[in-house]
């Protein structure tokens, strides 16, 4: 590729750029996500399956989601009103989950009865 | 970051931008139109994926669970399989039981691609065209790698094991399709195809957007525009795809 003009060395205001990249918060979030995932694998092979393990998995997943949404998607640095606009509707999903899991269990019980 | 209204050029703007509170001059979210709409789209997409995963939970609770020690587990259409017994294959190691290793690799690839995407956005803030190009290329590479891994996993899932599963009518079923599978109830494979397939489609769309972003960056489109907001918007989408995978990973592979 021909390198005719040094156009990329200046920003819109005409100032030279190539400032130092601020990657520390990004790498910190990455370390958390990788660490949590490694811990999940450890649990998957050392802990017996059950409601307790599932609860731990779900809580850890929400932690990972926090790092992705807050740091990678930058939501933590947006205005409060935007943060709540995105987060509050998600609360509806809690009811969806509770209702449909209960529904599934009820249907299963109706089909299999005492076998469960 | 440059305000888009201040960089409007050409003959499109004959009159001064409206700035009154009720004229559209108010920005309560302090986010541009495009970014806001991307957030709202992602919110709706989150509902779609949540509905899929909730359906998985519902269907799983409707079926019988395997009771007994994990080491004595056997495949049957009567009970829901333990995920680590289904997803235990690794490319090049035929017949070796390596539970969840391949999906761990896929997860890492996607998380790393998310990090390179943040770095592309960060480089865009500094108006550093070369860095944006570099990190977009890495993101494209990791995204394509993830999709390749998924293709391998689907192929393995569809082909099945050497021994298959003996059915009551005496026939043997190998692998999986939408009507029968050797791993468990019919809906187990159906949900696998729909959920990971829908996610894979999102990854593919993301790769198309990234390809566009790379070409436009190389052509200097965003540099002439004075800001790299398009990279930010595509970045939001790409991180969302990673976010969804984190949940798919937990609900499909771990629990």
UniProtKB/TrEMBL annotation, chain A:
The chain crosses the membrane at residues 29-46, 52-70, 82-102. It comes from the Bacteria. One of its GO terms (cellular component) is plasma membrane. It is found in: Cell membrane. Keywords: Cell membrane, Membrane, Transmembrane, Transmembrane helix. InterPro entries: Cyt_c_oxidase_su4_prok (IPR005171). It is a multi-pass membrane protein. This is Cytochrome C oxidase subunit IV. It comes from Hymenobacter gummosus.
């Amino acid at each position: 590729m021909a390198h005719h003009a040094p156009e990329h060395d200046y920003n819109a205001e005409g100032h030279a750029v190539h400032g130092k990249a601020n990657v520390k918060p990004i790498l910190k979030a990455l370390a958390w996500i990788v660490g949590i995932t490694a811990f999940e694998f450890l649990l998957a092979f050392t802990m017996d399956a059950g409601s307790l393990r599932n609860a731990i998995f779900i809580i850890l997943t929400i932690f990972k989601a926090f790092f992705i949404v807050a740091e990678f998607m930058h939501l933590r640095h947006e205005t409060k009103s935007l943060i709540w606009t995105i987060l509050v509707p998600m609360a509806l999903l809690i009811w969806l989950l509770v209702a449909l899991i209960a529904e599934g269990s009820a249907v299963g019980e109706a089909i299999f009865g005492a076998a469960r | 970051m440059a305000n888009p209204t201040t960089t409007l050029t050409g003959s499109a703007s004959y009159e001064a931008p409206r700035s009154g509170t009720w004229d559209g001059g108010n920005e309560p979210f302090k986010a541009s139109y495009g970014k806001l709409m991307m957030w709202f789209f992602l919110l709706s997409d989150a509902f779609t994926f949540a509905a899929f995963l909730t359906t998985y939970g519902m269907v799983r609770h409707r079926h019988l669970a395997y009771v007994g020690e994990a080491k004595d587990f056997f495949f049957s259409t009567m009970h829901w399989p333990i995920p680590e017994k289904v997803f235990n294959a690794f490319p090049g190691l035929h017949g070796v039981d390596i539970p969840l290793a391949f999906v761990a690799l896929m997860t890492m690839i996607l998380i790393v691609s998310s990090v390179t995407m943040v770095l592309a956005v960060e480089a865009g803030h500094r108006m550093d065209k070369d860095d944006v190009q570099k990190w977009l290329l890495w993101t494209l590479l990791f995204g394509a790698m993830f999709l390749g891994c998924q293709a391998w996993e689907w192929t393995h899932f569809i082909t099945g094991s050497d021994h298959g599963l003996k059915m009551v009518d005496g026939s043997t079923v190998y692998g999986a399709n939408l009507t029968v599978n050797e791993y468990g109830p019919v809906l187990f494979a159906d949900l696998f195809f729909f959920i990971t397939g829908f996610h894979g489609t999102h990854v593919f769309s993301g790769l198309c957007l990234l390809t566009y972003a790379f070409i436009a960056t190389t052509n200097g489109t965003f540099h002439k525009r004075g800001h790299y907001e398009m990279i930010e918007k595509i970045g939001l989408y790409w991180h969302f795809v990673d976010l969804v995978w984190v949940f798919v990973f937990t609900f499909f592979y771990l629990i």
